[in-house]
Automatic annotation (TrEMBL):
GO terms for molecular function: RNA binding; rRNA binding. This is FAST kinase domains 2. It comes from Anolis carolinensis. Residues 616-673 form the RAP domain. It comes from the Eukaryota. GO terms for cellular component: mitochondrial matrix; mitochondrial nucleoid; ribonucleoprotein granule. GO terms for biological process: apoptotic process; mitochondrial large ribosomal subunit assembly; mitochondrial RNA processing; mitochondrial translation; positive regulation of mitochondrial translation; regulation of mitochondrial mRNA stability.
Length: 685
């Protein structure tokens, strides 16, 4: 079917949907069509109107007195009956004078008379239609569930505008429900007799909907969970592809957002490629930064790099237009298109740093989350946001602070001031934490290896007190995560441990079909090691052996080369040493008690408990093992260092990325100072 014919059918249906229109081209219809549903002019719709006028049959373009005379009283000068005159007067003007007799032999007078009749009748029916529409939308706002919406739709005639708004309302009503509530409401919705009729109406009217209605219907249908393989979803995909050139920037953004949550197939891929082509064509015409950001979001993560570069260049050329909201939004836009543009990110970061006091909570949180997605590290930005969060701490609720802590932990950044303030609140009111918050706080503090200075035991006791409240209803996965977080600190929460080490819980954690089985085994292995080294003889052990899941061995040839130069003999150190409990040492050196002589490295079993020999463990840690912009070890590395000390090792921690930047002489002096130093490294907090 040709595009012009589609426009004609769609417009005809729009006019037929308005019962108050007596003529196909009354002033009301033309105005509605020209201005559109949103009240603004639309070039595409004006073109459609011209096409409709072009294809309209002749009888639609001329008025027929005979046709209209069948619907109004006949008025004849030969019969000047006062009753008939009163009847005619009542039809047009109840309060005005009786019009002069009009004869049908006078075309001009007849035309004026019939035009007045038609306009007044149209106004009456138009008011009725507006009243019904107002009633529908008033009642739609009062609906509290998808079934309420479907009950309402059943009481009104089917209209594409009604259907589109009904679907959007049904989606919004389910959006904020819990998962259990969503499943229940969706089941009732799918079983409702009106739901299939709504879906059928959308499928039938998709080609004739206005672009906004089509885009929002597509979004709502997908978000409501209607299977992607259904004819309804596939029809909407194809229609959106056919009418892609009609969509404005907002509609393109809605369609792009909908596609992000869909599985890949031919129709989805075709629509995604079409979106990218439309965006590329419109780049030169974009002059507004918000519209540019909308276009950037439309193209998706899989867009060609050349298209991403074009959009990046366009954004850089308009940097002088950047406002603070633009800078905040740009982080999310770049994350949506999976493009790490350092020049844009730096400019936006500076804008945020300069205006941090005027940014609300959620935009700041989204900036941090986007930094994680983009693998973008900016210490100045992190410090500025964390300091502001610490000052705004008392204006936020606990949930908001916890979300910030999790965002910083995902970035490997330790906001000391914020974490100390929040720890004070936890210690004073541990009951204020719910179950989810307790697990999240444990995770963020343990993985960032932070406790308030001088109050570690009090802080951990407060968290243990909060956790005990929820042991009766905590999930196995959350229980494992909480106990593991405690063990990173070397703290053993006995009630939670006793519950975790039950055979049925351990069996569920290591045999479930989920994707986290391997991660669960690693956490259980770490808990085993903690029970062995941090616990006592009465502490129960887990079911997994401690020698399971050894750490991977890596080669550090540059460190090995410096050690050969420093010690002069390769037999004076060992590399990639695997311990019985699963820990791996990058290098091991044996020295006398005075740390002046390096001894030949032999089998550890032959050394026994010789107090005259000191073992040195060299750990080459990657940058990910440290908090951002510091040498503060994160939780897993800190736990390993603590356990190695308990095993009798002196630990030398090498920040491997920094070590690689050293010259040979500097590297030699660094290792010499660390190995032969008389100072003993102290455990990190």
């Amino acid at each position: 079917m040709s595009w012009k014919l589609n426009c004609f059918i769609r417009t005809t249906k729009q006019l037929q949907a308005c019962p108050y229109v007596l003529s196909p081209f009354s002033r009301t219809a033309v105005k509605s069509f020209t201005l559109g549903n949103n009240g603004h002019k639309n070039t595409v719709r004006n073109n459609n109107l011209r096409q409709l006028l072009f294809y309209s049959p002749p009888f639609c373009l001329q008025s027929s007195i005979r046709g209209f005379s069948q619907d109004v009283p006949s008025i004849n000068t030969e019969r000047e009956d006062p009753n008939e005159q009163k009847t005619a007067s009542a039809l047009f003007d109840d309060d005005g004078p009786i019009p002069a007799p009009v004869t049908v032999k006078d075309p001009q007078h007849a035309s004026d008379f019939l035009t007045s009749a038609r306009e007044d009748s149209s106004a009456i029916e138009e008011n009725d239609e507006r009243s019904a529409s107002r009633q529908f939308f008033d009642e739609l706002r009062k609906c509290t569930s998808p079934c309420d919406v479907l009950d309402l739709v059943a009481r009104f005639p089917v209209s594409e505008k009604y259907v589109s708004n009904s679907l959007a309302t049904m989606w919004m009503l389910t959006k904020k429900l819990s998962e259990d509530q969503k499943r229940y409401e969706k089941r009732l919705m799918f079983e409702h007799p009106q739901f299939s009729q709504v879906c059928q109406s959308v499928m039938n009217e998709a080609k004739f909907m206005w672009r906004d209605d089509l885009a929002y219907s597509f979004l709502a249908v997908v978000r409501l969970g209607i299977p992607q393989s259904t004819r309804l979803v596939q029809t909407l995909l194809r229609v959106c592809q056919e009418r892609l050139n009609e969509f404005d920037d907002r509609c393109l953004s809605i369609v792009a957002t909908t596609l992000q949550g869909m599985e890949k197939n031919k129709n989805v891929d075709a629509l995604q490629i079409g979106l990218q082509l439309v965006v590329e064509q419109r780049i030169p015409k974009i002059s507004n930064m918000f519209m540019l950001q909308t276009m950037m979001k439309c193209i998706g993560k899989d867009a060609p790099l050349t298209l991403k570069k074009k959009l990046e260049s366009k954004a850089l050329s308009q940097m002088h237009q950047f406002t603070l909201p633009n800078a905040q939004h740009m982080f999310g836009v770049l994350a949506e298109m999976n493009h790490r543009s350092l020049p844009i990110l730096e400019a936006c970061s500076n804008k945020i740093i300069e205006n941090i006091q005027g940014i609300p909570f959620w935009p700041l949180l989204n900036v941090l989350r986007s930094c994680r997605d983009l693998h973008y590290r900016n210490s100045a930005l992190y410090y500025t946001i964390s300091d502001y969060a610490a000052t705004a701490f008392y204006m936020w609720d606990i949930k908001q602070v916890v979300l910030f802590l999790l965002a910083f932990e995902n970035l490997s950044f330790r906001p000391v001031h914020l974490m100390d303030k929040f720890a004070e609140k936890v210690m004073s009111r541990p009951e204020s934490l719910n179950m989810r918050d307790t697990v999240s706080v444990l995770k963020s503090y343990s993985l960032l290896n932070h406790t308030p200075k001088g109050q570690k035991d009090r802080f951990l006791e407060a968290l243990n007190s909060a956790l005990k409240t929820y042991l009766s209803r905590i999930s196995n996965a959350d229980l494992l995560r909480a106990v593991y977080s405690f063990c990173i600190f070397g703290y053993l929460p006995q009630p939670a441990l006793d519950q975790l080490l039950q055979d049925e819980i351990l069996h569920d954690l290591v045999t479930s079909d989920g994707q986290n089985v391997e991660q669960n085994e690693r956490m259980l292995h770490a808990i085993n090691v903690c029970l062995e080294l941090d616990g006592n003889s009465l502490t129960k052990r887990a079911a997994l052996p401690t020698d399971k899941l050894p750490s991977p061995a890596l080669d550090f040839l540059d460190v090995q080369e410096v050690l050969l130069t420093l010690l002069g003999d390769g037999s004076l150190f060992r590399e990639n040493v695997q311990l019985a409990n699963g820990y791996n040492l990058d290098f091991e050196i044996l020295m006398d008690a005075n740390r002046s002589v390096v001894m030949p490295n032999t089998d550890p079993d032959q050394l026994g408990d010789n107090s005259n020999i000191q073992r040195i463990a060299l750990l080459c840690a990657p940058v990910s093992a440290f908090c951002v912009d510091s040498r503060h070890p994160r939780g897993r590395l800190a736990m390993k260092m603590r356990h190695l000390r308990l095993l009798g090792y002196r630990v030398i921690l090498i920040h491997y990325q920094e070590f690689q930047k050293l010259k040979k002489e500097e590297a030699h002096e660094f290792l010499k100072g660390e190995i032969f130093s008389a100072e003993t490294s102290s455990p990190s907090n």
